[in-house]
Design goal:
By secondary structure, the chain is mostly beta strands. It is 3% helix and 49% strand. The protein contains one helix and eleven strands, in the order E-E-E-E-E-E-E-E-E-H-E-E. A hairpin with a 6-residue loop joins strand 4 and strand 5 (46-51).
């Protein structure tokens, strides 16, 4: 079983950059597809980005495409989310999660298809 812990959140100004980290424990991490989601107060959890276990494929939501970059280092059991040109609407609690592995390319944006979640890290962007 993989366990996840996010870090790197904080309060920044619009236009700034921030890099989130997701530290994983467990032998299954290197063969797991990992996603980043976010949830703002009063809103549903929203897909942000995902990376395949061998890092050869990534997907992004339209709202962050071109501004965020997901990456991973399996040797360190880490997944990262580099966020640039942050906007006020990026304010949310950000979570990393492990995909169930079933039909990832068709279900990567659905929170229900992720089995394990971290506790989240808060990102606040002031306009």
């Amino acid at each position: 079983q993989v366990q996840l812990e996010e870090s790197g959140g904080g309060a920044v100004q619009a236009g700034d950059s921030l890099k989130l980290s997701c530290a994983a424990s467990g032998r299954a991490f290197s063969t797991s597809n990992i996603g980043w989601f976010r949830q703002a107060p009063g809103k549903e959890r929203e897909f942000v980005a995902t990376v395949r276990w061998i890092a050869d494929r990534t997907y992004y939501s339209d709202s962050v495409k071109g501004r965020f970059t997901i990456s991973r280092d399996n040797a360190k059991n880490m997944v990262y989310l580099q966020m640039s040109n942050l906007k006020h609407e990026d304010t949310a609690n950000y979570y990393c999660a492990v995909h169930s592995g079933r039909f990832w390319s068709d279900t990567y944006s659905s929170p229900e298809d992720y089995d394990v979640w971290g506790q989240g890290t808060q990102v606040t962007v002031s306009s």
